[in-house]
Amino acid sequence: MQTRILKVVAQGEPQYVPSKKTESGQVAKCMIQLKALGGDYEDEFICAMFGNLALCKFAPGNVVVAALRFQTHESNGTFYQDIVANDLVPIRN
Fold first, then answer.
1. Residues 16, 22, 25, CA angle at the centre, nearest 5°?
2. Which of 2, 46, 52, 92 is the most buried (most CB within 10 A)?
3. Partners of residue 81 on adjacent β-strands
């Protein structure tokens, strides 16, 4: 897991997806686009947020401290990389 200071670019709407880890069988999921500080050509990340974090709203331009988990998985011979935002904390001015 990595902790970084990033800027929010955009955030999608939460959706409910199947989950074996919850009693209801569903968990909230939301995608967020984050960008490193420093300029137009800095690293950008598309991250998934789950549970209560997925229901939080972050405005574009907000600076946050983000704990990101990078993982890979294989499906039918193809490899994929996932980035999960485990925690996002806004930095207040």
1. 55
2. 46
3. 72
Report helix, strand or coil for 83.
strand
Listed residue (53, 38, 57, 58) closest to 86, CA to CA: 53
What is the value of pTM for the model shown? 0.88
- Among residues 12, 16, 23, which one has the least CA distance to residue 60? 12
- Long-range CB contacts for residues 9-14, cutoff 8 Å, separation at least 24: 9/33, 9/34, 9/35, 9/44, 9/60, 10/60, 11/57, 11/58, 11/60, 14/54, 14/55
Structure tokens at 59: 């405005």
Instruction: Express each pLDDT in 10-57 by its tens digit.
Output: 999 999 998 888 778 899 999 999 999 998 999 999 999 999 999 999
Gap between the Cα atoms of 74 and 76, Å rounded:
7
**Cα 2 to chain center, whole Å?**
12
